[in-house]
Amino acid sequence: MAVKAEILKQMGQIAESNDAYDRSVTLIDALLAGAPSPGVERNLISDLSDVYTGYFISLSQQGRTGDAFEILEKAHGRIETQALQHHAAPAPHPSTESDRELAKLNLELIGSKDPSVRSAVEQSIYETELQESTSRLAGLTSIHPVTLTALQRSLRKGELLLDYVLAEPVSYVMAITNHSANSYPLPGRKAIDAQVKQYLKLLEEPTGPPGLSSTLFEMILKPVQEYEGAESVIVVGAGSLESLPFSALWDGQHYAIQSRAMSLEPSATVLALLRSERSQKDDHTFLGVAAWTGTKASWIGQFLRGGGPELDRLTPLPASMNEVSTIAADFPRPTDILAGSTATETEFKRLPLNEYRVIHLALHGYVDPLFPDRSALVFAPESSSDDGLLQVREIQNLHLNASLVTLSACDSAVGPLQEAGVNSLSNAFLDAGAKTVVSSLWEVDDHATAELMIAFYINLARGEPKSEALRQATLHLIDGVAPQPFYWAAFQLSGEPASSLTEEETEQEQIETTR
Which domain range does residue 213 map to? Predict the structure, then answer.
């Protein structure tokens, strides 16, 4: 059907082409609901991504910038919704009531051309899927994406949002500010993917030179005219770009992070939604967790039961205790710290997590390449029913109200890199209610991480916006003991980048005064 849509477009039958694209998207959505195995699901998500990309390009060529942007947002949400749900290969079973209802609704959607009818059916599908899904943000993105106009109203002066589409033979990036929206052609997906792969291989070596970062800058940032005037860049990645540290791209004179704050976003809708939510009152200011403060012990093997982190990955993190205690000293009481053997998953869950303003987790991270929602943060072992692995699906069910969650952990942002994109622990914390999440793209150095994190929180205490606080902490390493990107480029900020902790505290006080 998507091929037919492209043919109709080439024949000049634009309305018919758009209708065929709509039907193609609906059909793949329906097939995804009943995918019998992870492999089939991955293929369908890849096909869905290709269809959305073709539709985006077609709408862009028609000059329908707002509609093209909406298609991109729907794609981000659908892919994330599917990725954040647990889909082990199910045994044959009778259809559930939800299965039957979704099948009926999808057939109605495929068979209808009436826009008002389609809108009503899409709303019913959204409500039915939301009952089955734990992904709050992804569901809202796929069914109710932010409009271009609404997004622009939410962007601050000096902010530039870059929304990428990887395709062949030409990729695209939408560059959006509070007063403009333009699309720019980029090299094809294969060329970009090859450069990213080579660059990451070099970047993950502590002494390795950046090498290809200037080439990538020329490919994906330099074509954007708005980039030069931007004070802060917010990236909505695609495919391999979701694992690329944009902060470490070299413009010929500086790393990108040296001239402007950088942050990542699952989608533009997530950013707009986070900015529309008001902060609530918190009773506790800070929670710090550091489980791996001592030497490696024999009990670590328990994590290997049923699939878990590799034994040699769970090395001690001796600097994490100093990191957590030093940061806690910057916050007013009450603050709480779980350290060493007390830093268990059970103890963490027992705390009033929705009352903490800042949660700092200095732990190991684990990524499951086959079942993304089994990716986890690794707590201290315990004898209770908890396994010590706080997995993505468990994180999504936490009830948080944190202004900031920091995952000072190895591999906390990265998930399995597929055609559809990256699945991450950081997105799960956003789903759980965190406003901003800082996480890492690869295994990080313990001591350099502690120094960066302590500087980050000092900057936050001074009232710096979160993305600027991270930028200044990064510059502290670049200008000091760890100039190589390996030591600082791993840390990425997602969610709300521009607010400060003091700004949100003032907002809370105003709300309380109004009450």
Answer: 150-270
What is the tens place of the pLDDT at every residue in 314-340? 666 666 787 888 888 888 888 899 988
Q: What is the pLDDT of residue 441?
A: 79
Whether 321 and 290 have beta carbons less than 8 Å apart is answered as yes
Boundary-marking domain end, from 106, 127, 143: 143
Indicate if 306 and 447 belong to the same structural domain.
Answer: yes
Per the structure, the count of domains in the chain is 3
Q: Which residues contact 157 (CB under 8 A, 6 or more apart)?
A: 178
Q: Examine the domain organization and report whether 394 and 357 are in the same domain.
A: yes
Query: Token pair of 177, please?
Result: 């500010």
List the strands of the sheet with 284-290, edge to edge.
181-186, 171-176, 159-165, 232-236, 261-264, 491-495, 436-440, 404-407, 356-362, 284-290, 335-339
| Six-digit token string for 513 | 């005064």
What's the chain's average pLDDT? 78
Main-chain dihedrals φ then ψ at residue 391, nearest 5 degrees: -85, 165
Cα–Cα nearest to 393, from 379, 408, 407, 377: 377
> For the domain that residue 229 is a member of, what is the CATH number?
3.30.420
- Is the distance from CB of 400 to CB of 354 less than 8 angstroms? yes
C-alpha 380/C-alpha 378 separation (Å) is 7
Identify the residue whose tokens are 């699952």: 266
Helix axes 14-33, 38-61, angle to 10 degrees: 160
Helix, strand, or coil (residue 403): coil
| Token pair belonging to 202 | 């070099």
